Amino acid sequence: MISVLIPTYNYKCYTLAHDLQKQLEASGEDYEVIVAEDGGKDQVVAISNHRINELPCCRYIRRTQNVGRAAIRNFLANEAKGEWLLFMDSDAKVVADDYIGKYIAAMKDGDADVIVGGLMNPEKLPSPIVTLRYRYEKAAEYQRPAAYRQRYPYARFTAFNVMMHRSVLQEIPFDESCREYGYEDALMGIEMMQKGKKIRHIDNPLMHLGFESNEVFLRKTEIALKTLHRLEDRMFSETSIGSVVMKVRRYHLVGTIAFTFRAFRNIMKRNLYGSAPNLKVFAFYKLGYYLNLK
């Protein structure tokens, strides 16, 4: 049995559940789709998502208390009946008619504990106010093909679109200390590497639709950096910013870069909030912000 598990927070995902249910029904496999609202208060979204209960083998669970990005995924896994768990974010869109079929084929090959499908972004900028996130995601598209991801299978693990055997999550649950945005799936990837779980990356992407405004994305980036700082002893050396920070420390440049960040932070924010944010400015902003965390 396949359990499709979708955590959400104030996001309409009836269409996503509907498209998945159609493919699952056609596959001939036993299945269920479970969507769990993690404490969102938007009544319009809730009314829309309640329609998921009308779909065969689908249910929508509205939880009144927000428990965080890791705990809501563990909750969904505990609710699930399937041997295989397919996690995806609610701001995703199914773009291929054989999306479920590709996962089933990979699952039946039996050569992996975890199968990562990947992510794609819209070809056109969705809105001028989301330019920072859009440019950042588009710049990383060279990392999207499965052949590239398979070269770094654990570092490229993501919970955005992944199928895993139930036994993996029983042994390595999402770390519930990760309540806010960022790094809960990166931490899981490191733990999978340490425990020898086999990850297979395939080209089976979902379209990413959840682009935040520049201001919101920068704020979420700061939250993620605080999470990484708290987890530094567990995963720091395995992250891209961690490797940069280690070089900065080695060459005794921490004070200089931290001071420069404080002096020019507002100027950098004006660039990043604007219609043409510079990704090099964004990279320096992240480094400087991290070096100023206590």
Offer a concise description of the structure.
The protein has helices spanning 14-27, 43-50, 69-79, 99-109, 131-139, 146-151, 166-171, 184-194, 214-230, 232-235, 240-250, 254-273, 279-291, and strands at residues 2-8, 31-38, 58-63, 84-88, 92-93, 114-116, 119-120, 161-165, 199-201, 206-208.
Question: Can you walk me through this structure?
Answer:
With 294 residues, the protein is of the alpha/beta class. The chain is built from 13 helices and 10 strands. The chain has helices spanning 14-27, 43-50, 69-79, 99-109, 131-139, 146-151, 166-171, 184-194, 214-230, 232-235, 240-250, 254-273, 279-291, and strands spanning 2-8, 31-38, 58-63, 84-88, 92-93, 114-116, 119-120, 161-165, 199-201, 206-208. The strands form 2 sheets. It has a 7-stranded mixed beta sheet with strand order 3-2-1-4-8-6-9, sandwiched between helices. It has a 3-stranded mixed beta sheet with strand order 5-10-7, with no helix packed on it. α1 (14-27) links the parallel β1 and β2. α12 (254-273) packs across α13 (279-291). The longest helix is centred in the C-terminal third of the chain and has 20 residues, at 254-273. The chain is globular. The chain starts with a strand and ends with a helix.
